[in-house]
Design brief:
13 strands; 4-stranded mixed sheet; globular; UDP-N-acetylmuramoyl-L-alanine:D-glutamate ligase; 24% strand; Ribokinase-like; alpha/beta; 319 residues; 9-stranded mixed sheet
Length: 319
């Protein structure tokens, strides 16, 4: 069973400054700020919400279909997806632009300065859900039974939510860092046509402020509302109740980048396989725990059998 993943594909360029920003920035001269940081180490990671979610769903043996836009520099990323046997048929290449890129500099105090270039991501609305459904229906691969709309270009997020709803494909609305691009009435419209809603606790607070509704009230408008809380696990609201999903202790804490996307990969696998919310939430929590023990969003290499074993060890039963 396949899941259509609408969202960003991006490169993350991560640099480390062997000092503290605070020692280089003079508060009294902030109005004429002009600083440079020597960054002796740098690495480039494959990232973006759609890429990260698909990577984790693929680890679980799911069938992710990525729908995204990339630039003329996307060759290495597309080669990687091909090697992973992740369906990239519906990734559109925009020759006139760059793939979305985040350039992140971290100092010794773990403060970060990030510059984000959306690039081809702003053209995501050029992709159509109907094209995916038509292509998959005509092939032997089978069409998408679930979807997710993750952070992407604003127009793309808006149109893909409506297109999935019109096609009758149940989907998760995952506004993430794209949430501030929508006002309260717009958010309520997208929530009302979504089947499920996923946010972290900070985004949940922002969502409540923008819509004027409590999370409990918002949950009444979808089949399930999932609120992740980092090291404290997650809450899942459904059928008029709320269950607490416990966190899974990580082998080590290395890098939180992409943990939310790993969690969402677990959610999609649970939905694809008809798992109950308790099991789905626990699997999603485990995926986040596995990811945080590795540097970068897509560097955790683990087999499904190993995931099954870790799940049973953590919770005492198999999924």
């Amino acid at each position: 069973m396949a899941s259509l993943i609408c969202g960003s594909i991006a490169y993350d360029t991560i640099m480390n400054f062997e000092g503290k920003f605070a020692d280089q920035i003079l508060p009294e001269q902030i109005h004429i700020l002009n600083v440079a940081f020597l960054v002796p180490t740098m690495r480039r990671e494959f990232g973006g919400c759609a890429g990260n979610i698909a990577y984790n769903l693929n680890l679980l043996g799911g069938d992710p279909i990525i729908m995204a836009t990339v630039g003329n520099d996307a060759g290495p990323y597309l080669d990687r997806l091909n090697q992973l046997q992740i369906d990239a048929t519906h990734i559109r290449q925009i020759e006139a632009g760059f793939t979305a890129q985040a350039m992140i500099t971290t100092d010794q105090a773990n403060n970060q300065i990030t510059a984000f270039h959306p690039g081809a991501m702003n053209e995501s609305h050029l992709n159509l859900v109907s094209a995916v459904i038509q292509e998959r229906t005509q092939s032997a691969k089978g069409t998408a039974k679930f979807g997710i709309v993750a952070p992407d270009g604003r127009q793309g997020m808006w149109e893909h939510c409506h297109q999935l709803a019109e096609a009758g494909v149940p989907f998760i609305f995952d506004p993430g860092q794209g949430l501030p691009m929508f006002n309260g009435p717009e958010l309520l419209e997208l929530i009302d046509i979504a089947s499920y809603l996923a946010v972290n606790d900070y985004e949940g607070e922002m969502l409540s402020q923008r819509t004027g509704l409590s999370l409990a009230k918002i949950s009444e408008r979808v089949k399930a509302l999932i609120v992740t809380k980092g090291a404290e696990g997650a809450d899942i609201y459904f059928d008029g109740k709320c269950i607490a999903i416990p966190p899974v202790t990580a082998a080590k804490i290395v890098d939180p980048t992409g943990c939310g996307d790993a969690f969402r990969g677990g959610l999609l696998f649970g939905l694809e396989n008809g798992m109950d919310w308790e099991s789905t939430g626990r699997l999603a929590s485990l995926m986040g725990s596995i990811k945080i023990a590795h540097q970068g969003p897509q560097n955790h290499h683990i087999s499904k059998d190993e995931i099954v074993s870790q799940f049973k060890s953590a919770f005492g039963f198999a999924f």
